[in-house]
Specification:
The complex is a heterodimer of chains A (about 400) and B (about 350). Chain A is of the alpha+beta class. Chain A contains 12 helices and 8 strands. In chain A, about 65% of the residues lie in helices and about 5% in strands. Classes of the chains: A alpha+beta (about 400), B alpha/beta (about 350).
């Protein structure tokens, strides 16, 4: 013991120990060895795969992606037919995955926030309902929830011939929800431009208003000016252009509804299941985040005379977000990855489409590699964004 | 810690890759382990491969598996079944998990070449058809334009469907599932107007819908679907055994040898029958094939001839009541034709 203390106090003398006992060289040697073994393992796996493919008389390579797919897909966000390539089919699958993930993330965040705050409510009924929600959805496997919604949608809604007709030409049946597709006429690009200009102007106006409030103490009107900028400007342009918008309403055909746009029951049930399931976890994260802010903060805010609503918005939530955001990222990633359960109900997501391609071409290794690469990319992109957001939201410690 | 992780990784990798080394000589492998591992329809396709309440398998594909076991071991019970979905079946055969795939699988050139399989014997000549609800009033598949159609993914059916509608300039909405049970349930729930798969499959599926009488199988056959057993390429010996297991059943039907009379037939004076049943003194047919000389006798004794198997599983003796049609012997206007066993 005394020896070590003496060593610590003395200046470091590297030559005193043999190099194989020196922590620096030792850890370097271990790291090099680990890296070499890992690299060797990867090379061996690669060669082994090639060898096995050759022995099994299997073709390999990614060239097949350019071939004609030959199968059809039900719900596509981009034009696709059986004449499109496998690559195009994968694009359709990827977009479907992204669509359900993006919408799911938005919905689940709102729902989770509501339930999480509900669990802290002083109202007994709301608090208990929120608890039941969390404990219910958290403890049921996601696949069961997906099936619950899917069978629920299929069994609860009437068949095509007894469709529920709703206002504005909307139709609901067990094949999906049909609504008129907007067809934008000439000059619509100006409406979009007006919308973008309106948003930019609104942001600038808000900043100026804040600066003025800081400087003079009086705050110019922001809300109504912004509404006028964001909504009013595009509407004005739309009217000036002579309302270049028509609708393609859905029409009942012999078997199906034709025309219009539609959302299939597969998408609906997957979207609802993912949102409801993940919201249970997010609710707990939100609750933990709010609970994580010391009570003294609330009391201090009240003592300063800040109203309860503003206390939540300006004092508690910014601090809670610091705790909430990192675990929230995991939940977003989970939701995205869980969307691959779509395969069970036939929603054409990346895994379902990839599976079909795998089976039609037999390129198991290639398709699995594509899956891995895409999911890793989506997850890393989400992580990067959330980390950026986290840094932005984190309070600067003083 | 680093070391522990590394060791774990090496062990995991080694374990993962040990399994992929499929033996090139399937026959030796099968003899060594003492049973044939047969990939069959996991969803239970009545008539081809389905389980009763006691867990016993039966069907046309099952009979083929049993015939192979009877040829190799002289004992039709030495089979283990691996239930497979349409999507899992090819990797299972490629990886060596199963010895042969008898899962109502269509023989196509790309499966022969790209996937690295071999097909030869066809134990059921099928074709793709459509089933629709009677209440729709559809009389022909050509009236299905605009319909939502249920189909199982990863099948030739899915591709034929796309081609058929395209060539007839019709529109449709595919409703696609990976598992046959899911397709059945979706069709029964009214998610789609029509169901398409091999016509034999439609007959089988119709029997377990909620109201079988409410559904009609449309007359069109839109494709050729020769269904037969597949094995891995590059193992000709095993390929021969599997193919001739089927041909032996067909030959037995030609000769009029049945499960019931096969013992009597052993005493037959007909040289063809004697040779077939391994009673010819100097014959080495079985030995050359790599199995016992009594292989054909064992097959017929175990599962009967092809006609018996057909009638029992999909024909008049079954709930499906499918006519022999294309699957009659060549001498009776069908396509079942076996090369001479000599």
């Amino acid at each position: 013991m005394t020896m070590e203390e003496a060593d610590l106090s003395a200046p470091r003398q590297p030559a005193r120990v043999a190099f194989y006992n020196d922590p620096f060289w030792r850890s370097l040697a271990y790291q090099v060895l680990t890296a070499a073994i890992l690299a060797g393992l990867l090379v061996w796996m690669w060669l082994n795969t090639l060898e096995n493919l050759k022995r099994a008389n299997l073709a390999s390579g990614f060239g097949f992606l350019q071939s004609r797919a030959g199968f059809d897909l039900a719900q596509t966000l981009i034009p696709y037919s059986s004449d499109s390539s496998y690559f195009r089919a994968l694009e359709v699958g990827l977009l479907n995955t992204l669509a359900v993930a993006a919408l799911g993330i938005v919905t689940t965040t709102i729902l989770g926030l509501l339930v999480g705050v509900g669990r802290l409510s002083s109202n007994w009924l709301i608090r208990k309902l929120a608890t039941v929600y969390v404990e219910g959805f958290r403890n049921i496997p996601l696949l069961v929830i997906i099936f619950f919604w899917y069978k629920g949608v299929l069994n609860a809604l009437p068949n095509v011939r007894e469709s529920i007709v709703m206002p504005f030409g909307m139709i609901l049946n067990n094949r999906g929800f049909y609504f008129p597709a907007p067809l934008f006429g000439e000059g619509s690009i100006f409406i979009l431009a007006a919308l973008v200009a309106g948003i930019v102007a609104a942001v600038i106006w808000s900043r100026r208003a804040k600066a003025q409030q800081m400087a003079t103490g009086s705050r110019p009107p922001v809300f109504w000016v912004n509404v006028a900028l964001v909504l009013g400007l595009p509407v004005l342009v739309f009217l000036v252009l002579g309302a270049p918008l028509t609708f393609d309403p859905p029409v009942a055909g012999k078997f199906n509804i034709s025309g219009g746009s539609f959302i299939g029951p597969e998408f609906m049930s997957l979207y609802l299941a993912l949102s409801f399931y993940t919201a249970a976890f997010i609710a707990e994260i939100v609750r933990a985040g709010i609970r994580g802010v010391p009570k003294g903060q609330t009391e201090a805010a009240y003592a300063l005379g800040i109203q309860p609503g503003r206390t939540m918005r300006l004092v508690i939530l910014p601090q809670a977000l610091r705790i909430i955001i990192p675990p929230m990222t995991s939940q977003y990633l989970n939701l995205t990855k869980n969307s691959s359960l779509a395969v069970a109900i036939g929603y054409a997501d990346l895994v379902a489409v990839g599976g079909t391609i795998l089976n039609q071409t037999g390129r198991a290794i290639e398709v699995v590699a594509i899956w891995l690469a895409i999911y890793v990319s989506i997850s890393l992109a989400t992580s990067l964004f959330m980390n950026w957001f986290n840094r932005k939201m984190a309070l600067v410690e003083r | 810690m680093k070391k522990t992780l590394l060791t774990a990784a090496v062990v995991a990798a080694a374990a993962g890759f040990a399994a992929t080394a499929a033996s090139a000589d399937t026959l030796d492998n099968v003899k060594q382990k003492g049973f044939v591992q047969c990939g069959v329809n996991g969803a239970g396709l009545q008539g081809f491969a389905s389980q009763d309440s006691a867990g016993n398998w039966s069907g046309l594909d099952i009979d083929l598996c049993k015939a192979v076991a009877a040829a190799v071991f002289g004992d039709a019970t030495k089979v283990k079944y691996t239930p497979l979905s349409a999507k899992d079946r090819f990797p299972a055969l490629q990886s060596g998990e199963i010895d042969l795939l008898a899962r109502n699988t269509t023989w196509t050139i790309s499966r022969d070449t790209q996937l690295g399989f071999n097909f030869r014997a066809v134990n059921y000549y099928d074709g793709q058809g459509f089933m629709a609800k009677k209440s729709l009033g559809v009389k022909s598949a050509l009236e299905l334009s605009g319909a939502a159609i249920c189909v199982q993914t990863g099948t030739t059916t899915e591709l034929n469907l796309a081609d058929y509608f395209k060539s007839n300039k019709m529109e449709y909405k595919p409703v696609v599932f990976e598992k046959q049970e899911e397709v059945d349930a979706a069709y029964d729930a009214g998610r789609c107007d029509a169901y398409t798969t091999d016509q034999s499959g439609l007959y089988a599926i119709r029997t377990h819908l909620k109201q079988p009488d409410e559904h009609v199988i449309l007359p069109e056959i839109i494709s050729k679907e020769p269904l037969g057993p597949a094995v891995r390429q590059g193992d000709d010996k095993w390929f021969d055994i599997v193919s001739y297991a089927h041909y032996a059943m067909v030959t037995a039907e030609e000769f009029g040898i049945t499960q019931a009379n096969v013992d009597e037939m052993l005493k037959s004076d007909n040289p063809d029958i004697k040779r077939f049943l391994g009673e010819e003194a100097e014959s080495t047919i079985g030995k050359d094939l790599g199995v016992d000389n009594k292989w054909a006798y064992n097959i017929v004794k175990a599962v009967g001839n092809y006609g018996e198997s057909f009638e029992r599983n999909v024909g008049e003796g079954s709930p499906l009541k499918i006519a022999r049609g294309l699957n009659a012997l060549w001498s009776k206007g069908g396509l079942q034709y076996a090369p001479p066993i000599r």
